[in-house]
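Reviewers of the previous submission asked for a worked example of the structure-prediction workflow described in the proposal, so we include one complete record here. The input consisted solely of the amino acid sequence. No template or homolog information was supplied to the procedure at any stage.
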Amino acid sequence: MEAVLAHLRGAIERGEYAIGDKLPSEAELCRTLEVSRPVLREALRALQTMGLTVSRTGKGTFVVASAVEDPTFGDYAASDLMEVRRHVEIPVAGYAALRRTPENLDHLAHLMDRMERETDTTAWVAMDTLFHLAVAEAAQNPVFRRVIEEIRDALARQSAFLNELGGRREQSNREHRAIVEALTDGSEHDAVAAMAHHLDRVETTLTDIVRSPRTADGPTEGGAER
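From that input alone, the workflow returned the following structure tokens.
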């Protein structure tokens, strides 16, 4: 999928498909690129998330931008989502370290165990959003949970995007584990630092994907963080 995405993204960025152009049909692209339809559709979804294309029901996929600037996850731009996450989730982690209950810790530990064993990206992404909700719940303030609920769909879309294109799952598991350990220790300082580090790595991977130079043959070496 990464190679298909790189090929199509490169063609758009080089102007082979100009703004307003319609991409070839799925059937034609599958034949040309010699890939299955599910793989192609994943790549087309990624192009749309990057803001390069838009899919119009019954009409096809059209180019709407010549370069990636700010991916969109659901209703929110990536830059807006990251700004809010930093202002909400970092202090929330600190509150959670001070206020978490044994039940909160048990729930988080159970989630971590499942996430570390999970190999299916879709299932892992679902648990990723549950993890961030669980941290908000541990802060014992329903408003924090409501905020995370509001951006939950965007978080899931962002998580899937980063895992498909940035190989983030194992690293995320380590970062999540550090957050849980800080909450277990009741250390506000460590919890804040662990969440800040996690969001730093999320943003770095996102930036790498957006800025990664592409060629017609596939992703260049040294692109997205692994």
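Strands lie at 53-56, 60-63, 72-73, 76-77, 214-215, 218-219. We consider this example representative of the routine output the project will generate in years two and three.
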